[in-house]
Amino acid sequence: NAGVTQTPKFQVLKTGQSMTLQCAQDMNHNSMYWYRQDPGMGLRLIYYSASEGTTDKGEVPNGYNVSRLNKREFSLRLESAAPSQTSVYFCASSEMTGGNNQPQHFGDGTRLSIL
Amino acid sequence: GDSVTQMEGPVTLSEEAFLTINCTYTATGYPSLFWYVQYPGEGLQLLLKATKADDKGSNKGFEATYRKETTSFHLEKGSVQVSDSAVYFCALKGSQGNLIFGKGTKLSVKP
Prior knowledge:
The complex is a heterodimer of chains A (115) and B (111). By secondary structure, chain A is mainly beta. Chain A contains no helices and 11 strands. Chain B is mainly beta. In chain B, a hairpin with a 2-residue loop joins strand 7 and strand 8. The chains are: A mainly beta (115), B mainly beta (111).
């Protein structure tokens, strides 16, 4: 069972470069999420997609764009990377947004450094 | 807005010691509550959950009870092992379906 798969696992970028982080889930979940994890900050929501074809901003969306390519895949794009975007990025999925008791399943993360 | 506050670490315990990690929340209504665990270099794994007041979530010897009156969801384990060393996150389900996390508590268990 693959669950939630993120690629790449590590990446180093220079300021101003662009990059797309990929996420795919094989659990047939409707909802998908992108978080960033920073030391002492916990995880913060960047964007989410309640269902295929919809996306919405989370707590910290500035500097990012997302695409819900199909039900399985949800990508996160940095158009012009900045050092403040150095972080660990996690993708997650769950059954449905309105299901209050449904847990989220997380990928292993992408460790991104912006020089 | 909704928020989660958990005790700051790091917490260092000897093997077989009793563990408590405090978690309190602020929310509209009664959201589902979760504890996630993150082992080094890995993503977050669901440890346990509770969906309504007085529910007790339990898994792998860990327990947490949803206390509406104190808006708390403290994590406990009677006897920790070295393999329990990890970062523990308390979280609640927000109105957008996302999780709102505490800042995490790092636990180190020494043999």
